[in-house]
Amino acid sequence: MERVLFLSGNEAFARGAQRAGVRFACGYPGTPSTEIIEAAAQLDGVATEWCINEKVALETAVGASLAGVRALVTMKHVGLNVAADPFMTLALTGVNAGLVVVSADDPGMHSSQNEQDNRRYARFAKVPMLEPSDSQEAYDFVAEAFALSEEFDTPVLLRSTTRLSHGRGRVLPRVPITPPTPDYTRAIDKYVMVPQYARERNRLLLHKQRRLLARSEETPINVLEAGMADFGVIASGVVYAYAREAFPKAWFLKLGMSNPLPVEKVAKLYRSVARVAVVEELDPFIEEQVRALGLPVIGKEAIPADGELDQDMIFAALEPYLKRRPPRRRRPVFAPEPRISSPPPAADLPVRPPVLCPGCPHRVVFAKLRKHKLVPLGDIGCYTLGALPPLLALDSCLCMGASIGMMSGMNKALGRKAAVAVLGDSTFFHSGVTPLIDARYNESQGLVIVLDNRTTAMTGHQGHPGSGLHADRSQGPEVDIERLCDGIGVRCETVDATSAKAVGSAIKREIDAPGLGVLVALGPCALTVPGKAADIVVDPQRCNLCGLCFAIGCPALAPGDEAVAMTDACTGCALCVDVCKRGALTAVPVEKGKA
Predict the structure, then answer these.
(1) Which of 186, 275, 348, 380 shows its CA 20 to 30 Å from the CA of 436?
(2) 91 near 124, Cβ under 8 Å?
(3) Model confidence over 286-315: pLDDT tens digits?
C-alpha cells in the first residue's frame, strides 16, 4: 500500500479517478477545477483530453461511457451552463459505463464572473450529487460516485468548491477498484430521445428518484453525528468542517450525498435537539427543502448568502440565535410522493408512426450506412426519424451537436472507427463546428456525415449560414462546409445525396480512409422540390413481395395483392429501384412540364 499522501482536493479527485478505474477523463480548463485533468494526465491508465468547451467535453465522455469505459468530466461552475444541454437529457438516457461530472463552484468569486450555486443543477436534472468535505473524501467519493452512476444508470454530479479544490490534506490511498467493462448494446428506446421514447424515460427517471431517496437515507456518507448540546447543524461539503470547528459540541447531520435530501435523517435530527441550523455557502439549497418539510430552521437570516464562510463567521452568525428561546417543536410534514402519469390508453385508431418524407434525400444515406457494422450516433433534426423502424439507422440522439463529440469519445475509448456521426446542415452550424474542431485538435478518427438539404427543414425551412437565407427571406452570403473543413484541416467531400451509388461509394471510401473525414450528402428537402422526378413502374411478374423495398421506410410504397404498389405520395427518387434485387422496379423520367 502507498504511503499517506498530502494532496489538494483536485489532485485527490484525479487519484480517486485512477483508483476507481477511470480510463478516460476530459474537461475544459477553468479555475478552480483545472488541476484535476492536469493531475490525471500524469497518472498511468488514464487517457486525458482538453476539449474545446464543456458541452463537447461532456458529449465526448458520453461516447466513452457508451463504449464501456468509465469517464470523468471536469469543469468550473459556469461551465455546467455550457454543458447543460447534454447534461439534462443525459439524466433521461442514462449511461453504459459510469459517468461522473465534477463541477467546481467558486464562492467569493476568486476567479469567476458570478457566484452561482450548482447544487441547483442536481435537483433540476434529478441526478444524485455528492459533496466531499476534504481531500480524503474527494479521493473516496469518486469511487462512490461511479458506483452510484452504474447502479442507478445515471450521471452523477460531484460538487467541489474553491477551498476544497485548492486546499490540501492527508489522503490515505485505498485498494484499487477493477470496474466492470460493459459492451455497448444497441438500445434505441434508451438513447434516442425522440418524444415517444423520452416520455417513457422520463417516467423511469421519476421512479428512480424514489430509489435514490432510499439510498440517501441508507448511505454511510450521510451521517448523523450525536453531540452534547441541544443544538443541531445540517451541513455539506467543506462548510461542514468550518461548522464542526465552530460548534464542536453540536449535533451534526453531515451530508456527503446532498441530493436527494435524506428527509428521515433530517427528522431524526429534529427529534434529538431543540433547534437546528442549516449552514451552507451561497443559496439556501438545503434550507428551502427543510422548510418545505414544515420544520423551523435557522438559515440565511443568520448565514450570509454570498461569499465564502469560515468558522469564525459561522460562530458569530449563529451564536446570537442560540441564546434565544427555542421554537415550538413541530412534526415534519412529508410531501406525498408525486404522481407519475401512465401512458394514455390507445385509441381505436390505426397506428401511424412518424417517418421521413417520400423522396427525402436522407433516406439514401441511412439505407447505405446500415450496411456497415458501425454505431451511427445521431443528432436532433427531422433526420432523427432514421432511428425508427424500419430504417433503424441511428443509435443515439442526445442534444444538438452531440453526435460528433460522442463519436470522438467512443472511437478514442475503443481505439478504432467504431462509430460514425450523423447530423444535419443546420445542426452542424448550430453546434457541430466546435466538436469537429475538437476532434481535429485531439486527433480523433471517424466519419462525420452532414445531411445537407440547404435548410432548417424540421422547423419550417428557415435559413442558416449554409443557405445564406435571412429571416426576411432575403439572400445573403453562404458558408461553404467544404472550405470550412479545409480551414480546420479536416478532409471533406461532397456527394450527391440523390444518387444511391455515389453515396454508397463515398461512405465506403471514407470508412476505409485513415483519420477524420467529413462527407456532405447534398440533396434538397423533398418538400421544396416541385414536381416529380420519375414514375416508378412495377413489374408484377418480377416482384415477389420480398419486402426489401419496404425496409427503406418510404411511405409511398404499399403492399399490393400480388406486387408492390406505388401511391400518389411517390416523388420518383428511385431509391426503391436501387434496393430491389429482382429488377421489379423501374424509374421512367418524367418530361418537364408533365410532372
Answers:
(1) 186
(2) no
(3) 999 999 999 999 999 999 999 999 999 999
- 312 CB burial (10 A radius; 0-12, 13-18, 19+): exposed
DSSP conformation class of 458:
G
pLDDT given at position 100: 98
Interhelix angle for 54-66 vs 84-93, to 10°? Answer: 20
What are the Cα distances from residue 333, in Å, to 28, 266, 271, 278, 295?
43, 12, 14, 18, 8
Same fold for the domain at 5-188 and the one at 362-528?
yes
- pTM for this prediction: 0.91
Cα 532 to Cα 361, 460, 536, 577, 595: the distances in Å are 14, 21, 10, 15, 5
Max distance between CA atoms of the chain, in angstroms, equals: 97
Q: Which residue shows C-alpha cell 451541513?
A: 235
Amino acid at position 167, single letter: G
Q: 169 vs 5, 236, 268, 375, 378, CA distance in Å?
A: 8, 17, 31, 44, 44
At residue 17, does pLDDT exceed 90?
yes
d(CA 155, CA 149): 5
Whether the pLDDT of residue 331 is over 90: the answer is no
Task: State how far the Cα of 338 lies from the Cα of 14, in Å rounded to an integer.
Answer: 38
The CATH-assigned architecture of domain 534-589 is 2-Layer Sandwich (3.30)
Q: Cell triple for residue 20?
A: 476507481
How far is Cα 130 from Cα 167, in angstroms, rounded to an integer? 18
- Grid coordinates in use for 208? 428512480
Chain centre to alpha carbon of residue 55 = 9
Contact 33, 58 (CB under 8 A): no
In whole angstroms, what is the distance from residue 434 CA to residue 412 CA?
18
Superfamily designation of domain 362-528: Thiamin diphosphate (ThDP)-binding fold, Pyr/PP domains (3.40.50.970)
- Nearest alpha-carbon partner for 405 in 387, 381, 378, 370: 378
